[in-house]
Amino acid sequence: MATIPTMMQAIVVKEPGKDSQLQVEQRAVPQPNAEQLLIKVAAAGINRADLMQRCGLYPPPAGDSDVLGLEAAGIVVAAGPQHKSWLGKAVFGLVPGGGYAEYALMQAGHAMAVPNGYSMAEAGATAEVFLTAYQLLCAIGNVQTGQRVLIHAGASGVGTAAIQLAKALGASVAVTASSDEKLQACRELGADVTLNYQKSTFEQVLAQQWPEGVNLILDPVAGDYISREIPLLALDGKIVVYAMMGGREVPQLDLATLFKRRAQLICTTLRNRSNKYKTNLTQGFNHTFSQALGQRKLQPILQQQFSWLHAEQAHQLMITNATVGKLVLTF
Known about the structure:
Layout: E1 7-14, E2 21-28, E3 36-45, H1 48-54, E4 71-79, E5 90-94, E6 103-107, E7 112-113, H2 120-124, H3 127-140, E8 148-151, H4 157-168, E9 172-177, H5 180-188, E10 193-196, H6 202-209, E11 214-219, H7 225-229, E12 233-241, H8 255-260, E13 264-267, H9 275-294, E14 302-307, H10 311-319, E15 326-330
Parallel strand pairs: 8-9, 8-11, 9-10, 11-12, 12-13, 14-15
Antiparallel strand pairs: 1-2, 3-4, 3-6, 3-15, 4-5, 5-7
């Protein structure tokens, strides 16, 4: 295999906050420990967590890389003693930061083989959104065949993955989005009910469409959405909140309506979970859905690729909320 350099280029955040800037900086190539792989990065997915981190709102956990990027795809160039079988193979998966760099560390248990026929850009767009959606729907939501699922931000990266997974699990799916174009993309992925929240009040429409109630709501908005969602829930329904795009405070939360439905309000994250949790999640997803992914019955929705040196341009596009699916940096 090619000699691994000692130094690499990486994109780092200068002055985290509203005036943050992205800069290319020389960094030492990280060294894998016994349970890690060193990846020569070919592609890195862009996620809203990256935007939050550069704003100073989502710092990396202690000990993790301060370089942006929570998922990557590339070739394994070094590995711990028990994981040499990965050497030379194309993999994708979660990384503990560091994806926006020429080389990145990945826990061996978080690595998945790039499916045949997938570009590295597609592989780089897959791990974060599909594992998040799998966590929300399966590990936490325990969605069952025939249940009804409401997915907010249906055209987002997580939303497009969640629609596909929910349909594969036999659920009926309703989504909200901000434009008819985004809703059309959701319908093409299998969404049964599509709601433009700019034109209608989603809870009123859905109460008429699904009078039986909703079993599971995937909510990246929070804020006043939560009080609006609770009356939609079926008995034993769940609201799983995984971001706070609409604000961290919930006005006028009436617990009685939750009690009446024996409902659960669950807040969850993925980034700060243990390596063991992420390994179990990755292996569960891979066991259940790797064949469907390889057959493209499930696949990432890749809107646009950018050279990694144009990360700022990609971030500005994500900020507009005009995207469907994923943006990816390629190296």
